[in-house]
Structures are given as C-alpha cells and as structure tokens.
Amino acid sequence: MRRLDYTKSSSEHVESLGDGPVTAPKHGQLTTFHPVINPALEKRVIRKIDMMVIPFICITYLITYIDKAMLGYSAVFGLKESLHLHGTEYSWLGSMFYFGYLAFEYPTTFVMQKVPVSKWLSVNLFFWGGITIALAGCSNFRSFLALRFLIGALESCSTPAYLLITATWYTVEEQPIRIGWWSTFLGLANSFGGLLAFGVGQIKGALQSWQYQFIFIGAISCAWAIFMFFTLAEHPSTAPWLNTEEREAAVQRLGVRHQGANHREIKKYQIIEALTDPKTWLFFLCGVSTQVVNGAASNFGSLIIEGFGYSNLVTTLFQIPYGMVVLVSNVSAMYLQRWLPGQKRCLVAIIYVCPALAGAVGIHTISRDHKVALLVCYWLTSTYTASFAMVMSLITANTGGSTKRTVVNALFFVSYCVGNIVGPFSFKSNEAPTYTSGIVAMLVAYCVEIFLLLAFAAYAVMLNRKKMEVLHGQGLVLEDAGFRNEETPVDQTDKEDIFFCYSY
C-alpha cells in the first residue's frame, strides 16, 4: 500500500482532455470516472491564474500590512507627542486594531461564505483606506483609538480572504507555493513602508510628518480597492480572461474534493467537528505564539531600533533590511518545503523559527554598547514570518469541508488577534529602551511555537496511519481517491473523506 505523493503536480498524472473521460475499472465500491486534462492546457491555465490572481493578493497584502505598521513608523515622527500619549496608551492603540479585528472576525468570515469574496474584500479595503486618511485628523487618544478599532473591523476579512481565494483557484499541492508568494510581500511591506516613512518624513508642510503618512497610504488603499473591485475574478468558471476550454480545465483540475470549496450551505455538524478537532486548537495556539511576536514587531520595531541609539529617520531606513530578511526567509522556505520529500512543512517552519529565537536571545543579552550586533539580532527576529506562512498552508491543506474550513479559519484569526493584542502589552513603556519583558515574551513565544509544530507533525502521522488502516480494511488504497461512488457527498470534511491524507 503506497502513500500519496504530495511532491507531484496534478499535471504528472493526467492525459488529454480531448480524449474524453476515462471510465475507471471497478475497485471495491468506487465506480465513477476520473477527470483527465491535457498537461499543456493545464500548464497554460495555471500560468494565467498566477498572472491574474496572485498579484491582487500580493499588492493588497502589502497595502494592508503598511496600514498596520504605519503606527510604528509614526511613533518616531511625533505621533505620541501630538496625541499626548502616556503610560500604556500607545500599547492600546496597537492592540485596539485587533480588538476590532476580533469582534468582526466571525461575522465577516461567514459573510464571505455567502457573497463573492473578491467584492467583499474590495469594499472593505476602500472603507478602511478612508478611515486611515481620517486618522491624520485626530488630535487626541480617544478619537484615534476609535478609528483604530474600525480599521481592525474592516481589515478582519483580509487574510481569511487571501486564503479562501488561494483555495478557490489552486490544488492542495499548489497552495503552499502561492501562499509563500503573497507572504513574501510582508517583507516588501516592511521595506517599502520604511522607505515611505523616510520619504514622507522629509516633507515640510502645514501638517506633521505622521499625518502625511496616513493620508498617503489611505489614498493608495482606496484607489487599489476600486481597481480590484472591477478586475479580480471570483471563480475559475467565470474568469473573463480564460476561454471556454480553459475555464473547464481550471475547474476540472481542482478535482472532486474542490467541488465543495464554494459550498454556500452552513452545516452544523461541520461546526461541531471543527470545534472538537485537536488540529483546530493546535492551529489556534500556533496563531497566538506567532502573533505575539508580530504584535510586538509591527508596533514596537521602530522603537526597539531607536532604543539602540539611532535617530528617527535612520530608524525607518533600518526597517528596510528587516523587510528584506522577511522576503528572503519566505521565498527560501517556500522552495525548501517544495524540495523536501513529502513537503515537510512543520520541519521547515521550525528551521526558520530558530534564527529568530537566536536574535531575541542576542537582543536580551548583548550590551547596548554594541549597536551593530543588536541591529543584526533584530533583523534575525524577522525569520519567524516564514513559519506563519507554513502554518497557514497547513490549515488549507489539512481542513476539508466548506463550513469546517470557515470555522477553523475564523478561529485561527481569532488567535491571530489574541497574539497581536498580547504582544504590544508585553512591551512596557517604563522599560524603554531595553523592553526586557517584551523580549522575554518573544523568546517564550518562539519556544512554544516549536513545541506546537512538533506536536502537530506527530498528530498528523498518527491520523494518516489510522486512515491507512481504514482503507486497508475496505480493500482500497489512496490512489483510488479519484474514483468516487455517485452517492458520495462532495462537501466532505477531512475526517469523513477516507482518502484524505494529512500534510505535515
């Protein structure tokens, strides 16, 4: 009995579409045919999808991250003084975004199961761009805090939408690479955001530098939202840039398991299964641990660098190498997991957490007299972002059933909010510039993430062994997955589908 090989693309196992469907020989109780696609046609379709879908996610991801990180950049350009912040008020501004995100995460996720995801994302992006512009008009803590909550509420659809769009257009084997592609724009966002803050910081006008920053990025968000609303296709079957043959191939190549990807019915039993599945809570805890670090880096990164003894303008420029490390980490992790036999995603994630852990140790232990060494250690802490991309790909690859996938994604992004809320509060203003508690919190988060990834890998191995036992008991093998009984439900969860093989 052979294991399913996740390292091969679907094009390696298909024949010509023009030859028509191939009737499967009877094997056990499975009697339907397996769809076949011309490899050249499939390659052309994938290339078009890569060109017409992924760029939208990449650019939107870049814009939304800069929206969030702009608070950190503005902190070194007079925001705290203009709003008369004191005590933990700056930390509250960082965390309030995620309170809004948390409050609207479930509603917006279930809305996306009912309405076109691309249109919902575009509308939300337009409004949060407008509110970002409005931040420039705030003159006190309370008004800024309220608008940060609204931006978080509107942006709660963003990353879940990216995952849903990726799952709509790509097979399970293809998704990690595509998630890796748009995740790399986190690095570009850090670099571009730092360069943008530096450039805007040179403006001498009626407004303060931090106000120009919010106006500029908010205007970009609104313009991009309008363009995306009218150009991003919703589904392979309706894409105007594919011809009839290509649309048919784009749908068929996703396979029978994906036919339920856009299922609109909310199923109660799948909600219960999601809530009682240990994988869900392992993903949840991974989300918390990674985002404790993200909440700290996005809101206090510039302040950490400034604490090494650099000026505000130089501080923003030093965010550019940080972003480049993020970019290199995500790209290299993406191809490393593809190269390793069986796509060992948990192993790859752990590999990229280790340099970040070493960097945090360095910041905590190296003397403040060694500014360059501290700066290098800070840049090393960014490699953890590759592990976050791996975790997201694990969720899409290991969760079956439309409603279950929706619930698991929603819970994961609840954990995303929890981590980002906790992260800023671990940095105490009275500990500046060393922020000892915050650095220790990052160290703990890295160690917890490594443990959780090992636990998930062990659990996935156990589940796959149980699946093999069930198949062996019915006289089947994993290669029979393409042949289905006509009465078998399409929208099955990973537990229901006896052919489902877990990736780790």
Determine the CATH topology: Growth Hormone, Chain: A
Following the backbone from N to C, one meets helices and strands in this order, namely HHHHHHHHHHHHHHHHHHHH
Q: Sum up the overall morphology in one term.
A: globular
Task: Give the distance, in angstroms, between the N- and C-terminal Cα atoms.
Answer: 20 Å
Report the β-strand fraction as a percent range.
Answer: under 5%
Q: What does the radius of gyration come to? A: 23 Å
By DSSP (H or I, 4+ residues per run), the number of helices equals 20
> What structural class is derived from the secondary structure elements?
mainly alpha
Number of strands: 0
Share of helical residues:
55-70%
- Report the mean per-residue pLDDT as an integer: 81
**What is the name of the CATH superfamily?**
MFS general substrate transporter like domains
Taken together, the total number of domains comes to 1
CATH architectural name = Up-down Bundle
Q: What's the main sheet like?
A: none
Organism: Aspergillus ibericus CBS 121593
InterPro entries: MFS, MFS_dom, MFS_trans_sf
Membrane topology: Multi-pass membrane protein
Keywords: Membrane, Transmembrane, Transmembrane helix, Transport
A few lines on this structure:
With 504 residues, this protein is mostly helical. Helix content is 67%, strand content 0%.
